[in-house]
Amino acid sequence: MAGLKITGWGTALPERVVTNEELAKQVDTNDEWISDRTGISERRIGGTTAGLGADAGRMAMERAGVDPSSIDLLILATTTPDRRVPATASTIQHQLGLDCGAFDLNAACSGFMYGLTAAHGFMRAGMERILIIGAETLSVITDWTDRNTCILFADGAGAVVVDRTEDDGDVLGFSLSSDGSLEDVLYCDHGGFLEMNGREVFRKAVLVMEKAGREALKQAGLEASDIDHVIPHQANIRIIEASMKRLGIPMDKAIHNLHCTGNTSSASIPLAMVNGIDEGRIHERDLVLMVGFGAGMTSAAAVVRWSVEP
Ligand code: UT7
What we know:
alpha/beta, four-stranded mixed beta sheet, binds oxa(dethia)-CoA
């Protein structure tokens, strides 16, 4: 059966760096607390979702060595579209000179994984090449006087180009879930700011990360011990540590860069993925478990056999 392979990747981060020390001048917090409790030292803010997404998408197409005219579909995972209407994907489609369908997908911080899974299905439906982007400007919906949230969220984008394969492709198994009964633990109303019950999100996140990861592994017919790298949603280093422990995978297999990016929602997994590639950690044939969770509460995981030598 047809599948997909990841052939190119790109990222974009705003220039403006906000350090923990800078936040400590605005709200009652300090670098030590933020670093110890979250693992975040600094984050980037600024730009638009379309601008960041287009920059990441352009880089992914360049690295894949493909022409914009060859893209069949653009999927933009975002929880912070620049406008309510039209979809920010359409703005990016125009900016990149793509001649294809484009739509936004909102599954909060699980969005990129939902996008990858959707692309897997579109390949089986006959498409040849898809650009998947996760892009966010969470700074726009963050209350910068609320120490509960402003220490966590940030802006950025990551993207991949995926090509159709005639064999099963890179995605060996996946899992998607949502539990809307938990919508009040993390939400943002129209015109409002992100509201969060941090402890509850933390508690549930660890459980759903394990469940999603195990389901994807089961579908792939693999054991946790087979996995070479885990690319988790970059929300809190303690959530990553606890999830890795529950999955029975050593922490040194987790790829994380949240210390310098903060939580960029849909952009966080592709940003960490490209970081792992740039650091030379991911190689051809490696088995990678990507697993995310987010508002909703959603979760999503995929086991990917990396088929291209980065
Ligand atoms: O993509 C999903 C997005 N959201 C998440 O992933 C959030 C998940 N949750 C978390 O990451 C953590 O729950 C937080 C980082 C939000 C909070 O960490 P925590 O270890 O759960 O802290 P807490 O809420 O239990 O608060 C512990 C203490 C409290 O003081 P007392 O009552 O012990 O005196 C808080 O008032 O830390 C205090 N506190 C802070 N102190 C300094 C809470 N926020 C801060 C702060 N700076 N920013």
